[in-house]
Write a structure and sequence with these properties.
The complex is a heterodimer of chains A (about 325) and B (about 290). By secondary structure, chain A is α/β, with parallel strands linked by helices. Chain A has 13 helices and 14 strands. In chain A, strands 1, 2, 3, 6, 10, 11, 12, 13 and 14 form a 9-stranded mixed beta sheet that branches. Chain A has a 3-stranded antiparallel beta sheet with strand order 7-9-8, covered by helices on one side. In chain A, strands 4-5 form a two-stranded antiparallel ribbon. The longest helix of chain A is centred in the last third of the chain and has 14 residues. The N and C termini of chain A lie far apart (about 45 Å). With about 290 residues, chain B is an alpha/beta fold. In chain B, about 25% of the residues lie in helices and about 20% in strands. Chain B has 8 helices and 14 strands. Chain B has a 10-stranded mixed beta sheet with strand order 4-3-2-1-5-10-11-12-13-14, sandwiched between helices. In chain B, strands 6-7 form a two-stranded antiparallel ribbon. Classes of the chains: A alpha/beta (about 325), B alpha/beta (about 290). Chains A and B meet through helix 5, strand 6, helix 6, helix 8 and helix 10 of A and helix 3, strand 9, helix 4, helix 5 and helix 8 of B.
Chain lengths: ~325, ~290
């Protein structure tokens, strides 16, 4: 199986891209955004949390066959499992990794236990600790303290977590290091062309990831006029000055949910999990759903318009965005 | 197991809920005897009334009728602040002091190259660190109930009395372990796990055989009340595709449209007031 489908002449030359945050119109294609801002050997974080996940971007990273990524996140789901299986990842810094309640992340297991398709290094955190790492970077401080992690083996195997006595009350406290990924890709409901991104539903750690990363790509269900943003500025979770690129990708987190837009496609994910049982099965899955689709529009057509609209109708029965 | 766990949730409590079978227990409690319990999910959804059993802690059902939706780090900050009375987690291994492993089974290997790599802490470490009390749900098997866990993902009482406060942990620690055959609690003085209640028809000897240390036993061991018809009916209706409990092999083969139909039936049943208001999705980009 040849994963080098589109080749990958990646780069992330700071000099060439540093002005992107200053632009007024940051809209690019997903292919261009991933090509420009996800360098081979770089570090990457993706947004969402069991919902509003950067699925379309994950597929594009696989199509462009990025290599040797360090993947940093709180609790990644099938995005990381797919990237590991597609040989994109060499190291993970995470709190949890599964596909869903009904499925383990088999590529993650195969890679850690048996080195299939390649060996990956693991650094464990807890979810709160992982979140604080992004918050620390967003605040531009080297670390943040927490009352989690104490008395556990997490700091024993992860030497970058320190336990100290607080200089103020003398009590033990754990410190977690800030993390500044090269790239964050965050999927949101809507954004304007400058990158003002509005999020409904759980925010996960996306506000902080946007600020922690050197380069931030916002993918969104809808690109809206600036006026629509100005009507409800409180909903802007990620302001334009953090953002390098804006990409419109409807159904960009399918099969995961997107609050107010579509419901979680549990059945699609069950089929992924069945294929993921073996590495050959997984390769068949990415051939069918990623490599044979030129872009996310083709993936959407393949999933089927009727099915996607059904998921939207389900979601809007429960949650509607009040605008 | 889910029913026993649900009964430990008291009305009005603020409960931080881990992924998996703890979710069903929590939902049963709010629809049954604890309508004022407030459920925290790490995806940022707090106090919602999901109309069916969703599968993941960031699913949008959790936002239905939620008074507060926020970020992940804020949800955990509220937990660390001390707002949560109870946390419910699962895990792969537990030892006599209630330390839980959900990171890796080492076997002959190491942390970087274990025999079995598990999902990892997720929010479990944070929950046991800071919640008022902790309930752990785990199937009773000898490979799970071990003398020492390979890796302490979520500390219980560590190695005995006072170890939690020495380590700086502020939460109360494990209060109960709910298994599929019995319920365990922790001795107030020694902090060691003991057999508290068995399910009907299960003997103390059977339990001791599945535990990897010399288990202490309450005198007398009581018999836990079996699930009531109302509780069983609720779970069947609320998890119509059997995606959480997986006792009926329904979820494995069901197709998309049957899944939609069953889910919607559950939504109609548990939220009589909601009606589909039709879709107006963005299809302009197609």
């Amino acid at each position: 199986m040849d994963l080098e489908v589109n080749g990958s002449a990646s780069y992330c030359d700071d000099e060439m891209v540093e002005n992107y945050k200053q632009r007024e119109d940051k809209v690019v294609s997903l292919r261009e955004a991933v090509h420009k801002f996800v360098p081979d050997g770089g570090s990457l974080t993706l947004g969402g949390f069991c919902g509003r996940n950067s699925q379309a971007a994950t597929y594009e990273i696989v199509r462009q066959a990025k290599r040797n990524l360090t993947f940093i996140d709180d609790s990644p789901t099938d995005q990381l499992d797919i990237l590991i299986g597609a040989r994109c990842v060499k190291r993970v810094e995470i709190a949890w990794h599964g596909v869903s309640i009904f499925a383990r992340a088999k590529n993650f297991r195969r890679a850690v236990e048996k080195g299939i398709p390649n060996k990956i290094e693991v650094e464990d955190y807890s979810n709160y600790a992982a979140g604080l790492r992004f918050l620390a970077a967003a605040m531009n401080v080297p670390f943040l303290p927490t009352r989690s992690l104490l008395g556990s083996d997490i700091p024993r195997y992860n030497k970058r977590i320190r336990t100290i006595k607080s200089p103020y009350d003398g009590e033990p406290i754990a410190l977690v290091p800030a993390v500044r990924p090269d790239t964050a890709i965050l999927h949101v409901q809507r954004a304007d062309v400058a990158g003002n991104a509005q999020i409904w539903g759980g925010l996960a750690n996306d506000e902080n990831k946007a600020r922690a990363a050197k380069h931030t790509i916002v993918t969104c269900e809808e690109i809206v006029r600036k006026e629509a943003i100005l009507r409800i500025p409180n909903m802007t979770a990620i302001p334009f000055y953090c953002v390098d690129a804006v990409v419109g990708v409807p159904y960009g987190s399918h099969p995961w949910s997107c609050y107010g837009y579509y419901h979680h496609d549990v059945i699609f994910q069950r089929e992924y999990a069945k294929c993921d049982e073996t590495y050959e099965g997984f390769l068949g899955w990415i051939r069918e759903w990623i490599l044979s689709c030129q872009d996310h529009a083709e993936y959407r057509r393949k999933v089927g318009r009727k099915r996607l609209l059904k998921l939207t109708r389900m979601e809007r029965t429960l949650n509607r965005i009040p605008v | 197991m889910a029913v026993s766990a649900a009964r430990e949730i008291r009305d009005g409590e603020k409960v931080f809920v881990g992924i998996g079978i703890p979710m069903i227990a929590a939902f049963l409690a709010i629809y049954d005897h604890a309508p004022n319990a407030v459920l925290f999910f790490e995806g940022g959804y707090i106090g919602g009334r999901p109309p069916s059993a969703c599968t993941d802690v960031g699913d949008t059902e959790l936002g239905f009728r939620a008074p507060y939706i926020t970020s992940l780090w804020r949800t955990f900050s509220d937990l660390q602040h001390g707002y949560c009375d109870l946390a419910i987690i699962g895990g792969a291994q537990i030892d006599r002091y209630g330390n839980v492993n959900s990171t890796a089974i080492f076997g002959d290997g190491t942390y970087q190259e274990p025999k079995t790599r598990l999902a990892g802490s997720g929010g479990a470490n944070d929950m046991v660190s800071s919640a008022g009390r902790v309930m752990i749900m785990m199937r009773l098997e000898k490979r799970r109930f071990v003398e020492r866990v390979d890796y302490v993902t979520s500390p219980g009482y560590i190695d005995g009395p006072n170890a939690r406060s020495r380590s700086g942990l502020v939460g109360g620690g494990p209060a109960a372990v709910i298994s599929d055959k019995a319920i365990f609690e922790f001795d107030e003085d020694t902090k060691e796990m003991y057999l508290s209640r068995v399910y009907p028809g299960v003997t103390t000897q059977e339990i001791k055989r599945e535990v990897g240390w010399d288990l202490r036993v309450a005198k007398p061991v009581r018999v836990a009340e079996p699930p009531g018809l109302r509780e069983v009916r609720f779970i069947r209706g609320y998890d119509p595709t059997d995606v959480i409990l997986r006792s009926r092999r329904l979820f494995e083969d069901i197709d998309f449209s049957s899944w939609v139909a069953l889910t919607r039936n559950s939504w109609r049943r548990f939220t009589p007031s909601i009606r589909s208001r039709g879709a107006s999705p963005n299809v302009s980009a197609w």
